[in-house]
Amino acid sequence: MKVISKSIEIAAPKERIWDVLLQDKYGRIWMDIFSPGSHALTDWELGGKVIFTDGSGGGIFGRIIIKEPYKIISVEYDGLLKNNLEDTTSEEAKPWIGTHETYRLTEKETITLLEIESDMIDDYYDMMAEHWDKALLKIEELATSA
Predict the structure, then answer these.
(1) What value, to the nearest 5°, has the Cα angle with vertex 18 and ends 35 and 71?
(2) What is the pLDDT of residues 72-94, one digit of tens each?
(3) Hey, CA dihedral for 96, 9, 27, 23, is it positive or negative?
(4) DSSP characters for 57-82?
């Protein structure tokens, strides 16, 4: 397991970037980079369930374990979604259990630093790191074009 750590400075207020991260209408745009049709099924509330899926019946699911509006949100994964069913016991699902994905926002004057950290299985690290580079640019585009 490795950790993908990426960041980008965005010329937008943290509130705007927060909206781009969490609102479905924006999330469907930037999450599409990871897999066409990707989106989050969640209310984004602390302790709430979150499912990241592309509509094919597959994905990953977990819980919101940290939420400080406009500052940080973190997910702890509980397993994989396979054929629209939660899988916590297969050999494929087990490595993902207990992994985390975290988004942090730090505002300094007119710039907001967005930092992401995502625990990643070695086999997916290079591909997902590349996807995150593209996703951060898309998040920046969405946050600055209003």
Answers:
(1) 120
(2) 999 999 999 999 999 999 999 99
(3) positive
(4) S-EEEEEEEEEETTTEEEEEEEEEEE
